[in-house]
Amino acid sequence: MKIPTPQQQKEAQANAHRFPSHYTYMKIAECLEAERNGPSEAVEQPKPPPIQCRECGTEMDEPDEVLRALCSNHGFVCEACEKKAEEARRLAWERRPLAPWPSLWPERAILDQENCSGEPLRLAKVIEGLLADGAMVGLIGDRGRGKTVMAAWIAQKRRERREEPGIYLRAADMFAMLRGTWDKDRDRGRHSETEQGLMSRFRECEFLVIDEIQERGLSEWENKILVNILDHRYASLLPTLIMGNLSAEDLAANLGPSISDRMAQTGGVVECNWPSLRQPGTKPYTKEQRESIQWSHCPFTSNGGLGFRGREMQLH
Fold first, then answer.
1. Residue 298's closest CA among 100, 99, 103?
2. Of all helices (H) and strands (E), which one includes residue 130?
3. Which domains does the chain have, with CATH numbers?
4. Which of 81-90, 131-140, 294-303 ranks highest by mean pLDDT?
């Protein structure tokens, strides 16, 4: 077996990109020598073997030499097989189980959202589009207009996209949870969260819904906490929905100028101005319907597993 001289090897390395990847340095050196001696002595280069799809074996159009060199160790995939693989990946994604509902979401709203239609559905779709861009949206209107149902519909669409449904909280409960972390019994197991831990959950969750904002107190402490949470979410482009039985003016007064400005910039306020959707004599949901809901044991995320709703966080 011939061995190239150091000079031949150096030249072969510099010109290797011009020749098939299976050529040895000695073979490349011979080809270069033939080129220098003129066309009459040129060594005929053998045609490289045909390229076949590694999945189905179909012969493919000849790729350029660079592509052949890059893919020689892994094989090529034809367009038909690539489309088939992409379809398989899409189906596998769609068949992933939906995230269960965190246990603080209202059961009735989850069941009612299947009947969301008409103007409530139209506005829910508008709000969903705003929230997709990380907006902060206010949803206001009198009692019974379906605001919580609209929020559940939006969360359900997130689930269908295999995303977390998000955290749902009534404003009074949110502040009660934070105050509950001050309890001296927390270290003895009554609470598993610190105030800072809860704040981080509310600031960083993928979607936050604060309902019944009109029921919160307006203390300086609550105002500071609310601004802190919402300002973090605004800065991080995280979607937030704030709901209440208020007018637009009263909502602005409740939130304060700092948050109202951020809301006006990103999403604004949507008003539900239709009649009450609560009808007397509505047929109650069956046991089977209620048991069809997949619940997480965790009040905040879908990562707590499936089962009955857990109430680990004691409200005060």
1. 103
2. helix 118-132
3. 6-80 (no CATH), 107-273+283-307 (3.40.50.300)
4. 131-140
